[in-house]
Amino acid sequence: WRKYSNICSSISRSIQNGSTPGTFYRNRCCGQHVVSLSSSSDSNKENQNGKKPRVSPSIRELTVSSECAASDSKWADTPFSKQVFTVLGLSEFSKEELEDAFRRADLDNNDLLEKEEFRSLVKNASNGKLSKCEVDNFTESFWKYHAPEVEAITKSQFLSRTEALAKELDPRVNALSLTFLLAGTSIGLIIPVMPQLAQSLAITSSQYGTIIGSFAFAKMIGNIPAATFVDKYGRKSSIVIGLGTIGVSMGAVGLADSYEWIMLCRFLSGLGVASFSAGAIQYLSDISTPLNRAKTIAPPMTAFSLGTALGPAAGGILLDYTGFVGTFALVGTGFIALAGANYIFLPKIVTTALETDRAGTGTSDLKEKDKGLLQTWKGLLLDRGISNMILVNGGYWFVLSGSQMTLLPLLLSGEKFGLSASAVGSIFMGMSMVGVVCTPIAGRLLDSVGRVRTIVPACMVIGSAMMSAPMVDDIYSFVALVCTWTAAGTLLGAGPTTYISDMTTSKNRAQALALLRTAGDIGMLLGALGAGTVADMFSQEQAIQANGIAFLALSGFAAIRFATIVKK
After folding, report:
1. Rounded to two decimals, what is the model's pTM?
2. d(Cα 490, Cα 193) in Å, to the nearest integer?
């Protein structure tokens, strides 16, 4: 397309300059005609007399087409489905909204949508932002998708096919899934290494909890600035900067000779993860619809789980052969390379001419947006459904940080089980494989059964498994219960994000997701500190059991609140 547009532009310029380019043919560019440009002795004579050559209507059509191809509206670079939804004004994709879109398009009210009616809809929706070429090209593409053999489609055809289009996954999910796969692999490498590093530096359970807490604290304070950065500078920039920051801080951990140095490096990693998460989650939200949002988020989450499954076994081997410095240097280099690859290859989120026009009608300058930020947070937190899901997410990360991130590696490598680094890595690899298998299933359940109806039971399963795990003495039963709460946790990996995305609009979604992540980071911070303290005061098993009981109580409270919201 770019090569063709350059040819069209060259032809147009040569005609306007009075030269005769010979014979060219145009096939199906925005229109459906073949245009021939031939040199003629008449035009040569006119040039010799100093007169501007006459431009035929077909040549003018070609000039308009070349301007369309060379324009900076980026309409052609935007996925076809995004164009459809923007033109039709779809956001919720409910049956009522789809029927309303059909009524607006059906100008003669005969319950049939004709091609010219849809062409008029596109033209009117653009308010002059799209050229005739773009309007024609999109109309033909839409008609080819819906009904290539007919001149009109019925309401049922329109509803079913537009809904089917909304359920298709955007191909840009694949690029981000690869990023999550490699990031998960890099993180998986250090899972069995960190407890060994802590033991080599004689770090206690409470100090280890502080290290985990510093990571969570950095994420917590970085979420809101990261959300603002994402809105101002773009999703891709946030992803690249976040990955680069993680890489530098991870590499520096290998040089640690004190507890304070590790805590500082993990703090910087938390800031990097805040930037990466803000960009990646908003990116996925932008390229999804309410009908496929959970399935859009599921592939990256599955890829991340697969990466963390592959990493631990390799981490134990790397530690044996390269030591702490070599292992963390490799991980840091991997993240920096990943940042460079995303900078080069990750497609940007393109704003079409229509979206720019729609956003401009309801958006003030940056100062006004900053003034309304606190008001936005207040409005989000006053929504009972949103605030309840934020509470559930914070509670989940509280128990996950305390039981799984802080105490589980120490318990497995401690006196009770006495496992080696490679054995601990194998268990975490098995947990990650459970996530790989269950995450796609979780995505389907969230989209088909419903967000709340799957999240609340999953919370109860997690609480029950954590409460029961310390009661068993053999390693196999213990690992089975750990894998049980891992499987249920896949529903909370994507569930809260999809729920919040559904309940918000494009104007407040970034801040809503930032609040959700902040609640999770507060939970991670308090969970790590609390679990380490309780473990020092009592035991690691009792700390895990206390987390399970607390999360069961929170699950019951959330269930009651959600039931009240549904009734109202």
Report:
1. 0.65
2. 24
